[in-house]
């Protein structure tokens, strides 16, 4: 769940990768790593970001006081996909990717407009249907926009992502700095858990 899904054009982030003594996974908002010895089948990836430097900077060079994760508000599951993050859909018969051309002009397709399966797709239970990431929640199972952000230390973080991290065993957190302080740059929250480490970027309200 910590990898990017099919809606992210960066295919190299759609699976974990090995670098050095760690295996990493990220969707661009949060990054998690566990010892490579615990997942020996994961391969290296030249295109993957150098997350090792991020962890070194924020875990080894920063003075952190790790605290127990606070109690979080309830996360509301996405209604469109019932929290699954995916749904079955078929291609829209009236358009291509949510639009169509007519006499040289391009029009939005009203047949699939606002479809939770994404532009150019219609939710369906047919045998020929394809499993698609839910467009309403970006395939996460819970909408970042609907659930919003919650304060933690000096900054705020996505409730959805915090809830994911809160499920990790024996997790503790060192909050980062506010995303509203551009002169200091974005400083992520650091998480320690039984079996690994994680970083989560702050969000602006």
Layout: helices, strands, pairs:
Blueprint: E1 17-19, E2 22-26, E3 30-35, H1 51-60, E4 67-68, E5 86-91, E6 99-102, E7 105-108, E8 121-123, E9 130-133, H2 144-147, E10 149-152, E11 155-158, H3 159-166, E12 172-174, E13 189-193, E14 196-200
Antiparallel strand pairs: 1-2, 2-3, 3-14, 4-12, 5-8, 5-9, 6-7, 10-11, 12-13, 13-14
Give keywords.
205 residues, 7-stranded antiparallel beta sheet, globular, single chain
Short description:
With 205 residues, the protein is mostly beta strands. It has helices at residues 51-60, 144-147, 159-166, and strands at 17-19, 22-26, 30-35, 67-68, 86-91, 99-102, 105-108, 121-123, 130-133, 149-152, 155-158, 172-174, 189-193, 196-200.
Outline the structure in words.
- With 205 residues, the protein is mainly β.
- The protein is built from three helices and 14 strands.
- Strands 1-2-3-14-13-12-4 form a seven-stranded antiparallel sheet, sandwiched between helices.
- The longest helix has 10 residues, at 51-60.
- The radius of gyration is 20 Å and the shape is globular.
- The mean pLDDT is 89.
Round the mean pLDDT to the nearest integer and report it.
89
Categorize the overall geometry: globular
Largest sheet: 7 strands, antiparallel
Tally the beta strands: 14
Distance N to C terminus: 24 Å
Rg over alpha carbons: 20 Å
Output the structural class.
Answer: mainly beta
Bin the strand percentage.
Answer: 25-35%
Order of helices and strands: EEEHEEEEEEHEEHEEE
């Amino acid at each position: 769940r910590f990898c990017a899904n099919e809606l992210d054009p960066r295919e190299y982030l759609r699976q974990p990768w090995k670098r050095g003594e760690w295996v990493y996974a990220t969707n661009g908002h949060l990054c998690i790593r566990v010892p490579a010895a615990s997942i020996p089948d994961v391969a290296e990836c030249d295109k993957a970001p150098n997350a090792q430097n991020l962890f070194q900077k924020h875990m080894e060079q920063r003075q952190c006081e790790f605290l127990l994760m606070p109690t979080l508000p309830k996360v509301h599951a996405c209604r469109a996909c019932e929290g699954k993050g995916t749904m079955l859909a078929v291609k829209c018969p009236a358009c291509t990717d949510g639009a169509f051309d007519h006499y040289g002009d391009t029009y939005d397709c009203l047949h699939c407009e606002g479809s939770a399966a994404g532009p150019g797709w219609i939710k369906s239970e047919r045998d020929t249907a394809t499993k698609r990431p839910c467009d309403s929640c970006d395939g996460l199972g819970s909408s970042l926009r609907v659930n919003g952000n919650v304060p933690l230390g000096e900054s705020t973080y996505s409730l959805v992502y915090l809830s994911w991290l809160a499920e990790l065993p024996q997790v503790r957190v060192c909050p980062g700095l506010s995303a509203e302080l551009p002169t200091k740059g974005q400083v992520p929250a650091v998480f320690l858990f039984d079996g690994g480490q994680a970083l989560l970027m702050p969000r602006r309200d």
